[in-house]
Specification:
By secondary structure, this protein is of the alpha/beta class. It has helices at 5-12, 16-23, 31-44, 50-57, 77-92, 107-117, 133-139, 165-178, 194-209, 226-237, 251-263, 300-316, and strands spanning 62-68, 96-102, 122-125, 145-148, 160-163, 184-188, 219-221, 245-248, 273-278, 294-297, 324-327, 330-332. Strand 6 (184-188), helix 9 and strand 7 (219-221) form a beta-alpha-beta unit. It comes from Sinorhizobium mexicanum.
Length: 343
Amino acid sequence: MPVKLKQLAELLGLSQTTVSRALNGYPEVNAKTRQRVLKAVRETGYRPNRAAQRLATGKAYSIGLVMPIASGIGSDIHFGEFLAGLAEEAVKHDFHFVLNPSAPEDEESTFRRLAASGNVDGLFLAHMRANDPRIAMLKSLSIPFIVHGRSIGGSKDYPFLDIDNTAAFYEATRLLIQLGHRRIALINGQEHLAFAIRRKKGVTRALKEWGLDLDETLVHHSVMTDGYGYRSMERFLMQPNPPTAVLCSSTALALGAVRAINQAGLIVGTDISIIAHDDVLPMLKPENFSVPLTTTRSSLRAAGARVACRLIGGILERGTYPDQELWHPELIVRASTGPAPGK
């Protein structure tokens, strides 16, 4: 038999009103009492009546995302990892997570309908683009939101969590240059996405500091899968003057690139160096590659958890959080990077 609010209150020697207010984060309930209530909830398995809770607080205890769905949009292991972190944090706070599918051209109106429905207390936005019009749209709605990533251009006055993509790929490129590499390729994410634009900017900036230019024939933009990584690397290696090093925007792309390098009879870290961005995907650990990968690392799952923590914390008015966070990825050097051939 599920424990009811009345039984929980009797167990604690508190009124039902006090228990309810403790669970809903009312400030007049002191911290000691709230901790007693939460401990009893964990021990008894009590679950509040959502309908009653919504009537009492006006909250849906849900956060939402609009998911573009179309024939040309495939599944994305990277976004799946981000959602896993977000969902884990939502469960801790007993929040629901609402995915609202939408045709890409109808995305903004779907956000508006979701915000107006009362079914979610907050929204988050992902897959940021340059001059992204969705930010102004979300700012016009009377509902909390947070952005995973940052747009390029336009207003910078909005809550976000992002990694410093420009700095990450600048530092990775500088390492390759210091190892003597001059022909450096880039297998990047889709060209319209803000993170891919910033990563290319980081590569270009590092090369320019050494009086070098990024050869556009050594740059490919695509969906980040091993298949695209393989085809991109295969084309690079067919050039009369192939690269001696390559940067990949994900370990998924690197998996394909390494396969192409191996099939060409070349040795990773000796004949050609490779650096990938590591989103800490459980199935693609860089240290488990045949030659362990040098990476720039930042966990997508941790980012998802942090986005949920900030959004839910704001909804429940618990704690204070920075409005904008820029995480700096860690550069981890392994065996896939070595001196340029002949150096």
